[in-house]
Amino acid sequence: MNIVLFGPPGVGKGTQGERLASATGASHLAMGDILRAAVRDETEAGLKARAYMEAGKLVPDEVVVAMIEDKIAGDALAGFLLDGFPRNVPQAEALEAMLARHDMAIERIIFMDAPEEALIERLSGRLICRACGFGFHRHYSPPREAGRCDRCGGELYQREDDREDVIANRLRVYKEQTQPLLAYYQDKPGFRRIDASGEMDAVYAALVKAVEE
Ligand code: AMP
User: Residue 148 falls within a domain, yes or no?
Assistant: First the structure.
């Protein structure tokens, strides 16, 4: 099954998407992770993307569309879960055209939502493992040993764009550019909306239900 997960920054797309992908065998295509890897490796796309990401702005459509098409068309995927793409209506239109070209379809479009206070709290307390990318939260899911990943022992860090000033910008960009996707998607077959304001296991249960029903 091919799935699109969308919603505001900090709603849990990454955490829940990773869990769903490993349970179903689908590939988790997280646009933010793909971009951060490109920035780290100083690829041509990464060099173009860096300044936008640091400011909490969207990277230009042509850059992200080409990167995602590479992933979708490049490997024979046993289903994929798109997380963080599309993030505006032109990207959604580009996705449709790309899927038609590769004879693929999206079976579920899942909108995850939570109140803004919860998003700010989740983002500002978030810690990520530099080695394996696993996410923790200072208060809600702290690591056993401060600063160290439970899974691989890697160093935990706070993402540059999880600083409060950049968070405010990302939420503004979300409202202006990503929220209009709701009107674009909500009448399409396969659209589901879930409440992602609760605890991690409750949100995951709602996600599985939205996929299965
Ligand atoms: P994320 O890890 O999903 O929070 O994404 C981190 C940053 O990557 C965003 O703030 C944007 O700068 C950039 N980004 C991620 N996905 C997209 C996208 N679909 N279009 C443009 N920029 C994106």
Answer: no
* Residue 70 Cα to ligand 1 middle (Å): 17
Closest ligand 1 atom to 36 CA: 8
User: Rounded to the nearest 5 degrees, what angle is found at the Cα of 114, between the Cα atoms of 122 and 120?
Assistant: 30
Q: How far apart are CA 151 and CA 146, in angstroms?
A: 13
Atom 1 (ligand 1) nearest CA: 32
159 in active site: yes
The pTM score is 0.93
The number of folded domains in the chain is 1
Write the pLDDT tens digit of every residue in 185-209.
Answer: 999 999 999 999 999 999 999 999 9
CATH number (domain holding residue 192): 3.40.50.300
Contact 49, 59 (CB under 8 A): yes
CB 45 within 8 A of CB 82: no
Range of the domain at 84: 2-114+177-212
